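Quick one from the shared queue. A colleague (R.T.) flagged MFS-type drug efflux transporter P55 as missing a structural entry in our internal table.

Convert sequence to structure tokens.
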Amino acid sequence: MSQSVERSKRPLIVASIMLATFMVAIEATIVATAMPRIVGQLGGFTYYSWVFSAFLLAQSTTTVIYGKLSDIFGRKPMLIGGIVIFLAGSALAGFAWSMTSLIAFRLLQGLGAGAIQPVTMTIVGDLYKLEERAKVQGILASVWAISAVTGPLAGGLIVDHFSWAWIFWINLPIGLLTIIGFTLFLHEKIEPRKARIDYLGTILFSIAIVSLMVILTETDADLSILAALAAVFIVTAILFFLQERRAPEPIISLALWSRRLIATSNIATLLAGMALIGLTTVLPIYVQGVLGRSPLVAGFTLTMLIVGWPLAVMLSIRLFRAFGIRRTLRAGSLMFPIGASFLLFLTPDSSPVSAGIGSFLMGFGMGLISVTSVVLVQESVEWSMRGSATASIIFSRSLGNTLGATTLGAILNIGIAHFGSGDLASKLHEVINQPSGLSSLATNPGIRLVFHSALHWSFWGVFTVAILTFATTWLIPVSREAGRKPPTQTEMQEALSS
């Protein structure tokens, strides 16, 4: 299989990738900004994190499948198919009538989103040489910066002046333009071959993750139910690994993931994903509920996160040449726990600026971790495995997001029960489950203090995972001199051997 794309059409394909990237990037800030209002209208704050977790579970489960299928059947059909499913979920999510229906439609969105990031990143790897790729990735990184500004602004304006449904429907015109672009400009010569999809592995993985999510969410359930769910998780997890060892086309290639570079990069990415989704889900409700600020201000604290990320990507090639990949990665990843530490010092009287600084530092650290992992992993495998290798990074980040959203949500609910002493916890849930509930917390000091204390438990969780992320980046094998000059493929291979 090969790409038959004229050089003059490559910018048009990149433009289509930018649209697809924008659609996914803006989804993060626009939904996070609007979620407190959505929960207030639909009720069910206990399942707040499930709106994120359902999307991320489906995304993480399908990412590796799309990556493998793109290696077999081509990038174009997999990408367009994923976008169509994503748009269907977006359209239905706008009509959600309850938290249950919203979670179901977010699950459908995630089934399509699993194709967008890994396949678009793989297309860039196919079309551009290594020395050209950093420039293209810098262009794509600018899309995240643009979405970082427009996402919170759009989310705040929509929930204040229109129906919240438009935070999902805004994807429809963008997605249609993206499909048209790929249809017209991306052409492939495909030599189809038979493939056996690991459906059993996919089912076992999904059951294991869902059971773990329910255990973390339903912390007040009967002990026997939790024990049964724990047994389901353990059994399905064991069966999943056994299945992956014998499956001809496993969704997770144990041989691929056992390589030190790929294993350590994926672990670091998974932990970073846990920390970032914790920040994304918890910080907006702290800014609105405890600091008493508007959804727009809460959204802009997350803007700093998504500004820091692409800025790091755009600067990465210069940093690599000046200091080497290893020093840049380790110094940059140190910003991750430093940024998370800002959250620990937030009080009801703090300025949102402090939260924004912490978000920016975490985003910058994530940018360096992300770009380094993708470049090293892509160059460590041959073309026929590039889609699967790239998907492994996206899969790890998505799985980290899934586990992080669920775990941090569980910590928040436990904190509310602990600090609320029964009555206060009930009153807090009653207030939050109203359309303007968060904005009224500032007028009730007792409930506000409970919310502040519970959210700080979640902040400690983010900080702990950030520390683990920093420690794991030191295990990624890369030589001291790697990246100091424009790297060739041979030099990159040598960098992986140390």
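The chain has 19 helices and two strands.
Confidence is low (pLDDT under 50) at residues 481-498.
Added to the table.
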